[in-house]
Design brief:
With about 350 residues, the chain is mainly α. It contains 14 helices and no strands. Keywords: Cell membrane, Membrane, Transmembrane, Transmembrane helix. InterPro entries: ABC_transp_permease. It is found in: Cell membrane.
């Protein structure tokens, strides 16, 4: 019983420790910003935590803003988690998210469609766009052995310039406004409040996270993906195709990111503006996945934390706390989580050395 409890608690101890330590360190910066003395440490703790809570969940509108922020973070986190589970680094989630957005911006302007049909078409368009954008680096990795990191970074820029070309240089953009037209009412997702961006895409995001968890841990496909991520050489020896699963993982990852981008347009933006940079959600999704230890269900809880931090930035600033404290907390969390991965790497290396020497 004790062994089972230890097995369950071990994966979640380090993320909680990372969050605790990030807040512990961040409080000192709050003290510096507000001129607190060292004896007022707990006052600063209360100030920081209270402001984050009020800024993200303190009012109905703030809660709706946090929920709206959660949805794309869940999609991006799960997309990254799938790639990480296969031992791949899909730095291109941002570009795949952008391609999902532009596909929704185009499909959403088709007039005269039934709302159910229209939303389904938007979802399928986002999935297809993300699948293609994720499949390209997956194929190049499997066929030619090229780094998916370099390929996905380059595809991020290509996606941004392609989207901007469509918006600025084709009939899909509104002349002089650097954006696509507002999508049809039939393509817009139902919102929880008329004046707030939170919408039913949060339920789709949670459903996708649960489905991917089931896929990874309860199916043969998921077993092969995880086996390749743990040890590609052993997986190949056992008859599992590393190349096939590399492509499959990148395709699934891209499809999830593309769906997230499409639903972000359908639920929140209702149009696509020209990109100065690829959406930050793709990179935030890396942090979400790392904190969740690449567990799709864990990505839901992780997304809640990062969404709360993002939406509370303005409240922090109004309370005399620099909004950059949000990025500081996120950075410290990532550093501590990364430390766990480094420790595991050296532990595995030590074990292999002991086996060889033994």
């Amino acid at each position: 019983m004790l062994q089972k409890l230890k097995k369950v608690l071990k994966p979640i101890i380090f993320p909680f420790l990372a969050i605790f330590l990030s807040l512990f360190v961040s409080v000192f910066f709050v003290m510096w910003a507000k001129g607190y003395s060292i004896t007022q440490y707990f006052t600063a703790v209360s100030d920081l935590m209270g402001t984050i809570w009020k800024g993200s969940f303190g009012t109905k509108r703030n809660m709706m803003n946090t929920i709206a922020e959660m949805s794309p973070l869940i999609f991006a986190g799960v997309a990254n988690a799938v790639a990480f589970r296969t031992g791949l680094f899909n730095i291109g989630v941002a570009g795949q998210f952008a391609m999902g957005m532009i596909s929704a911006g185009i499909i959403g302007t088709i007039p005269g469609l039934n709302p159910v049909v229209h939303v389904i078409l938007i979802c399928l368009g986002g999935i297809l766009a993300g699948t293609i954008w994720g499949g390209i680096p997956g194929f190049l990795r499997a066929r030619f052995g090229t780094s998916e990191v370099i390929n996905t970074i380059m595809l991020n820029y290509i996606s941004m310039f392609l989207a901007n070309y469509i918006i600025l240089k084709t009939s899909f953009g509104v002349p002089g406004k650097a954006r696509t037209p507002i999508i049809e009412k039939s393509a817009q997702l139902t919102r929880f409040m008329p004046s707030a961006p939170a919408n039913i895409s949060i339920f789709i995001a949670i459903a996708v996270a649960i489905f991917i968890f089931w896929l990874l841990w309860k199916t043969t496909v998921g077993y092969e993906i995880r086996a390749v991520g743990i040890n590609p050489h052993a997986a190949e020896y056992g008859g599992i195709s590393v190349a096939k699963n590399a492509i499959l993982a990148m395709v699934i990852s891209g499809a999830i990111a593309g769906l997230g981008g499409a639903l972000h347009v359908a639920g929140v933006n209702h149009m696509v503006q020209d990109f100065m940079a690829v959406p930050n959600y793709g990179f935030d999704g890396i942090a979400v996945a790392l904190l969740a230890k690449n567990n799709p269900i864990g990505c839901i809880a992780s997304a809640v934390l990062f969404a709360a931090l993002n939406t509370s930035a303005r409240a922090l600033q109004l309370n005399g706390i620099p909004k950059e404290i949000v990025f500081l907390i996120q950075a410290i969390i990532i550093i501590f989580v990364a430390t766990d991965y480094i420790m595991k790497y050296f532990e595995e290396k030590k074990k292999k050395g002991a086996i060889i020497n033994g």
